[in-house]
Amino acid sequence: MTDIFNEVDEEVRRDRMMAIWRRYGVYFIAAAVVFVLAVGGYEGWKAWQQKRAVDDAAAFAAAVDLSREGKHAEAAAAYRRLAADGTAGYRTIAALRAAAAEAAAGDLGLAVLAYEQAAKDSAGAPLYRELAELMAAYERLDQADLAEMRRRLEPLAGDGPWRHLARELLGLAALKAGDTQAARKSFAEVADDAAAPAGARARAAELLASLKDAS
Fold this sequence. Notes:
The protein is mainly alpha-helical. It is 80% helix and 0% strand. It has a single domain, classed as Serine Threonine Protein Phosphatase 5, Tetratricopeptide repeat, CATH 1.25.40. The chain contains ten helices and no strands. The chain is elongated, with a radius of gyration of 19 Å. The two termini are 20 Å apart.
């Protein structure tokens, strides 16, 4: 009987930790999306110098408007067209935005496939490739086991530009799997890293504190 109560208590602790993440998950996505938009603006500026840049800029703006109106499936289709036929400055950013629109439309499986394809298509641009891989892992967090999440995230958690978010996701995956020791390690790596964004450090610190309170 004691074992049953321990199992229930552990499940409650994990649910509590994941609830904290759900509260902050939007900020995780925002951190990546803000970067994508910023880089996309720069790439768009460069593409403006090219022959079809005006048409591509209009197409991209129209797709953004569809997303803002909640027409995510239509936005995804518009981004995919731009990713396939647009100028170099728009193709990668449109592919990433198409995947995000698929996720917003509720088709997480298609979103993961879209991110994975974007990663393959961005092989020559590591920053975009790793962002696509990170977002694919994010969309798989609820369904994937710890082994899959480690396979996806450990290559990103070394010293690359997305290491803080990758470590954060690794901590959440470990927490979901019941490996609180690994979760603490991952969150501590983020919380103790002075180079990590302030928001990521704050989230990691709160998750660490909650783990301590639950122990």
